Amino acid sequence: MCGIFAVIGSREVSSLLIDGLRKLEYRGYDSAGIATIDNSNKDNSGQINVKKSKGKLINLSNLIKQKLPKGHVGIGHTRWATHGKPNERNAHPHLDFSGQIAVVQNGIIENYRDISKSLAIKGIKFTSETDTEIIPHLIGLEIEQSLANGFPPNGHTLLKAVQKVLTWLEGTYAIAVIWSKAPNALVVASEQAPLVLGFGEGEFFCASDTPALVGFTRTFLPLRDHEIALLTPLGIELYGDDGNRQHRAPSLLQGTEFFADKKDFRHFMLKEIYEQPETAQQWLDRFLPMDLPSGNSVALPISTSLVERIEQIQILACGTSRHAGMVGAYLLEQFAGVPTKVYFASEFRYAPPPLSPNTLTIGVSQSGETADTLAALRMEKERRDSADDPNFYFHQLGITNRVDSSLGRELENVIDIESGIEIGVAATKTFLGQMLSFYGLTLLFASHRQKRSSQEILDLSHDLRLIPKQLADLIKKHDSLSQEIAHLFVDTKDVIFLGRGINYPIALEGALKLKEISYIHAQGYPAGELKHGPIALLDQHVPVVSIAVPGIVYEKVLSNSQEAKARDARLIGVSTYGPESEMFDELFTIPKVSEWISPLLTVVPLQLFSYHIAAHKGLDVDQPRNLAKSVTVE
Ligand code: M6R
């Protein structure tokens, strides 16, 4: 979603801004812009230069390359449209009525309509349809007042004006502001939207996410809610919402692979699919090593006392992360015997179930910045805290790929899936990492509750340890098969995915992958539901993908698939090879494995199938239209 990158120092910043924004491209956006303060006039009066363009960053970089806007301070933005069409007019930065103040913003200002009306009454004309534009105007008015009251045109005057304006805004946002009369100042603030400060050598940064800082600095400090900072070429002053200076030690970016390259792959998504055996191996090495101390089923960072207290689990997540949660819920209930429910985070917040005692709330988010998931978790914490009853204590666990994210910081217990940065908007290897974490939790709860025999626990662990090799074989085999058949589906308009039991979430995930990158409408159903309505859609133009894995629902899924075939649907199987395979027009074979672990494998052909259809159609696989990697607005 929107990305902010801003810098202040002693060198020219326009190309640095483009560099930083490029590292935020993976978040998804539809226009981009920068503003710098050109301070080269002899009289020291700065001039704001704004350059914006619709579409990809390359358009902006082509626009400015003839004549780079000058300035040692600048703010940059990639916009994912919420209020107003994705065009140049609505792209950020936005200027105030005097043309002296420029602002970029992420998030949504909820009371912008009321504020715009009162600004219009004061004669202020708006040049965009955005909620953002009220901010520079409000700051402009406040600064006019400060100057009239004799305050000098400097960074602290800007800081004070921004502080005041923020008290009038409702919503969640991160902003960066510059003022042509204070070219040595950059003011940034955050309210429930991610923003990190970067400490370089003689230059300072702020960005929506840490990958943007790579190559500039490894020292960073995430802003907390309601915090505001004044950046100058000499350093950073951080203030809390009470106006007091804050002193917190910055952290050091971990990992070297923060900004991955595509290597020889055509797209990041394909590379990330190929990285799954490694993701699985690393997860196993950390959490399920061969040399586990005796009596331990898994090495997750979760205390025994927590596990012992928990009677039920609720999982809050969105999109693919919710599908991982659904696989988890199946395992936790059916294998470990813990009642578990999965919620759309976006629904949970406004329709939570009655408080249940001794409940573990698990937030799942690869980015750790999904606004719906964070808001649901915060709401749950608040209502459990205010119940003031030890039975309703907020027992919490996060599963994320970004421990440095808001989710990672806000939750007490976190499983870091450490899948390595995922650039493709379509989640693949992080889905695997999330599912594996639920397998780990299942082993933990099953052994503590003595729900399963030690042999069953050992069998599941043993099967999990075989996964990396099986994944590697599957990827190799199905990459070429899906490439071969992709052309058959280029004109397809609708696809139905069927699965049952533990593979029902995989049917949903297969459909989501296909929709998001190939723009083909797809729907996942529990196979038994087909005859209750969706079957009316079937004919020779609507292919059906059926996940049929030997186990308790195998025969049932095969019968449901036959029903589809009888309606002339082209049948694509994700199944083991056997006499039954004949019914499938196309078959992605998977090895004969225990049904428990089958989702770790059945998802792979579906990822490749979607990928090759989208690639064959020549679509932007890594950054599909309208989508964002981190969905930071509700
Ligand atoms: O970062 P999160 O895991 O919280 O993201 C949740 C969804 O937005 C995400 O899974 C989305 O559905 C992906 N694009 C799926 O590929």
UniProtKB/TrEMBL annotation:
<dbReference type="GO" id="GO:0004360">
    <property type="term" value="F:glutamine-fructose-6-phosphate transaminase (isomerizing) activity"/>
</dbReference>
<dbReference type="InterPro" id="IPR029055">
    <property type="entry name" value="Ntn_hydrolases_N"/>
</dbReference>
<keyword id="KW-0963">Cytoplasm</keyword>
<dbReference type="GO" id="GO:0006047">
    <property type="term" value="P:UDP-N-acetylglucosamine metabolic process"/>
</dbReference>
<dbReference type="Pfam" id="PF13522">
    <property type="entry name" value="GATase_6"/>
</dbReference>
<dbReference type="InterPro" id="IPR001347">
    <property type="entry name" value="SIS_dom"/>
</dbReference>
<dbReference type="GO" id="GO:0006002">
    <property type="term" value="P:fructose 6-phosphate metabolic process"/>
</dbReference>
<keyword id="KW-0032">Aminotransferase</keyword>
<feature type="domain" description="SIS">
    <location>
        <begin position="485"/>
        <end position="624"/>
    </location>
</feature>
<dbReference type="InterPro" id="IPR005855">
    <property type="entry name" value="GFAT"/>
</dbReference>
<keyword id="KW-0808">Transferase</keyword>
<dbReference type="GO" id="GO:0097367">
    <property type="term" value="F:carbohydrate derivative binding"/>
</dbReference>
<dbReference type="GO" id="GO:0006487">
    <property type="term" value="P:protein N-linked glycosylation"/>
</dbReference>
<dbReference type="InterPro" id="IPR046348">
    <property type="entry name" value="SIS_dom_sf"/>
</dbReference>
<dbReference type="InterPro" id="IPR047084">
    <property type="entry name" value="GFAT_N"/>
</dbReference>
<feature type="active site" description="For Fru-6P isomerization activity">
    <location>
        <position position="629"/>
    </location>
</feature>
<dbReference type="InterPro" id="IPR035490">
    <property type="entry name" value="GlmS/FrlB_SIS"/>
</dbReference>
<comment type="function">
    <text>Catalyzes the first step in hexosamine metabolism, converting fructose-6P into glucosamine-6P using glutamine as a nitrogen source.</text>
</comment>
<dbReference type="InterPro" id="IPR035466">
    <property type="entry name" value="GlmS/AgaS_SIS"/>
</dbReference>
<keyword id="KW-0677">Repeat</keyword>
<feature type="domain" description="SIS">
    <location>
        <begin position="302"/>
        <end position="451"/>
    </location>
</feature>
<feature type="domain" description="Glutamine amidotransferase type-2">
    <location>
        <begin position="2"/>
        <end position="234"/>
    </location>
</feature>
<comment type="subunit">
    <text>Homodimer.</text>
</comment>
<dbReference type="GO" id="GO:0005829">
    <property type="term" value="C:cytosol"/>
</dbReference>
<protein>
    <recommendedName>
        <fullName>Glutamine--fructose-6-phosphate aminotransferase [isomerizing]</fullName>
        <ecNumber>2.6.1.16</ecNumber>
    </recommendedName>
</protein>
<feature type="active site" description="Nucleophile; for GATase activity">
    <location>
        <position position="2"/>
    </location>
</feature>
<dbReference type="InterPro" id="IPR017932">
    <property type="entry name" value="GATase_2_dom"/>
</dbReference>
<keyword id="KW-0315">Glutamine amidotransferase</keyword>
<dbReference type="Pfam" id="PF01380">
    <property type="entry name" value="SIS"/>
</dbReference>
<dbReference type="GO" id="GO:0046349">
    <property type="term" value="P:amino sugar biosynthetic process"/>
</dbReference>
<dbReference type="GO" id="GO:0005975">
    <property type="term" value="P:carbohydrate metabolic process"/>
</dbReference>
